[in-house]
Every structure is written in C-alpha cells, then in structure tokens.
Amino acid sequence: MTSPQTGIFALGTSSHAYVEFDVSEGASGQDLVTAISSLREPRTTMGGVNLVAGFRPELWRAAVPDDAPVRLHGFDDDVVGGLTMPATQHDAVLWLSGSAYDVIFETARAAIAEVRALASVAEETSSWPYRHDRDLTGFIDGTENPTLIDAAEIILVPEGRPGAGGTILLLQKWPHDADMWESLPIGEQERVMGRTKADGVELEDKPSDSHVARTDQDQFGKIFRRNMPYGTVTDHGTMFVGFSSEQHVLAKMLESMAGVGGGERDALTRYTQPVTGAYYFVPSADSLRAVGGV
Fold it and tell me: CA separation (Å) from 230 to 27, 41, 124, 173?
C-alpha cells in the first residue's frame, strides 16, 4: 500500500511554518522537484519536525506524469463572486510542524538553503495554536474534521489511481478584521458562524449565509483541515490548510463562500478575506523517495 506523508496527520504540534517557492529564472522545475523530494526524511518526523512537501500540479505532472491526478490544476484564476479570492499560485510549498519554533526555524532555513540555487521564497508564514483548538475569532476550528482513523480514506487518492497515496492541498491566508469582529455581540458572531461560540454546537436556525451553511460538507464533500492561527497581536488571521482527494470539493466550497453565480456570500467573509490562494499536490512518501533518490 502506498504511504502518505505522515506530517499531514501529525496533530498536536505547537509550531508551524509554511514556505512557498517559485522556480528561479533559468532554473529547472524538474531539478526543484528533485531537490525538495530529496530533503531528509520528508515522510517522517526528523529531529522533532514534520516536513510535508507539495508542488504546483502542473510542475509535478511534468516531473512525474504517471503520478499526477487527472485534471488537477493550480489556483490559476481568481474566484469572483460577492468578493474576490485571489489566485497566488506558487511552484512548491514546504509545511513544517513541530513542538518548538527554534527547531522549525533552523529546519526551514536549512531547507531554503538546499534549494536556493533553484528557487526563491515567494511567501512565508509562521503559525501556532490558540487556546488549544480555537481560531482567532474565538470559535472552535475544525468541528467537522474526520477522525484520524477516517481522514486517510477521505483525503488520500485511492490505490489504482494516478497519485495514489497523495492528496490535494488548498492553502490560503485569511487576515482578520479583529476590531470589526470583536465589536459584534456574541449572539451575532454565532449567527455569522452558524454555531455556538462556547462549545461549537451547530445552530438549528442558522442563517443561510452563515459560515456553516456556506461550507456544508454534507453538500460538498468531506475535507481534512489543519488550519492554524498566524501573525502578531496587531496583524493576524487564519492559515487555511485543507486537504481532499478531489479538487472539486475544495473548489465548490470556495465558490459557495464567495457567492459565485449570484449565490449568497459567506457572512464570515465580511470580517476576514483571503489574500493568497494556491493548490498543491502533496505526493505520497513513496513517490518522493522515488524522485529524490533517498
């Protein structure tokens, strides 16, 4: 059976970093794929750090044609509805997570140095958990997440299909308008979210434009979220880190939130809006070993 990159499922880590790369002018995308795939032990914990590698779908397909899911593509166009979700696709991403930021810091610096001749850092964000399982709105995040027992079956490409053991990552950065959000009474915040703030219970009379209603996984399909807060006291938000075996599940959720085609816009997007958006294919650990030669 094809093994996934285990860092995807490494819950409970307290420090995270997301580093996105663009291939440098004159450099080879194939060489970048090989270099990132050959980073030490990308499929396991290394020195207290979990390292997950992903690639722009077209870049991975060019490097490993037989291991790319059919019709998977990058975040090539803005999602435009009642708001615009920008497309900021890059060529590769490294997601590092662990128990202490000093180890994350050193490992990220070493990884950047390894690929410096091939790619430049296009986006870098550091993250950390907030009050165990809440985002910076104060609400519990990931209430609909599957258990770890079920997550692999939901988000990994099945055996026998191109890309088996891999998964599709949607990565977005959502800064919050904290002052506007915190000016709302808790009852109004709950109606925006569609669930209670204290314990995350879904409201029976939730508004149709509530966040829960606009991202209903019973309608669009299940995903596995590893969201994390990011930022400083004065400038912060949520890193959306969502995995699925099918791109259309993630794409349809975004369209619903944005109100594409005249639909209702997600009420939460009046208080937080994305400034980045990219899809990455996260290959299996076996595929990384084959490409990287380690």
Answer: 32, 26, 11, 9
- Fill in the amino acid letter for 147: T
Q: Which of 16, 17, 53 is nearest to 35 (CA)?
A: 53
Residue 141 bears catalytic tag: yes
For residues 288 and 63, give the distance between their C-alpha atoms in angstroms, rounded to a whole number.
11
Q: What is the pTM of this model?
A: 0.96
Residue that is written with structure tokens 């077209």 in the block: 58
At residue 142, the pLDDT reads: 87
Pick the catalytic residue from 141, 209, 266, 286: 141
Interatomic CA distance for residues 71 and 168, integer angstroms: 12
- pLDDT band (50, 70, 90) for residue 219: very high
Helix residue ranges per DSSP H, the chain? 29-37, 57-63, 101-115, 148-155, 178-182, 186-193, 211-214, 217-220, 247-258, 285-292
Show the tokens assigned to 275. 């400034």
Give the whole-angstrom CA distance, residue 225 versus residue 244: 9
Other beta carbons within 10 Å of 234: 6
Question: Amino acid letter at 276?
Answer: T
Please, which residues have CB within 8 angstroms of residue 139's CB and are 6 or more apart in sequence? 189, 193, 195, 197, 200
Place of tokens 């076996």: 286
Q: What is the pLDDT of residue 293?
A: 81
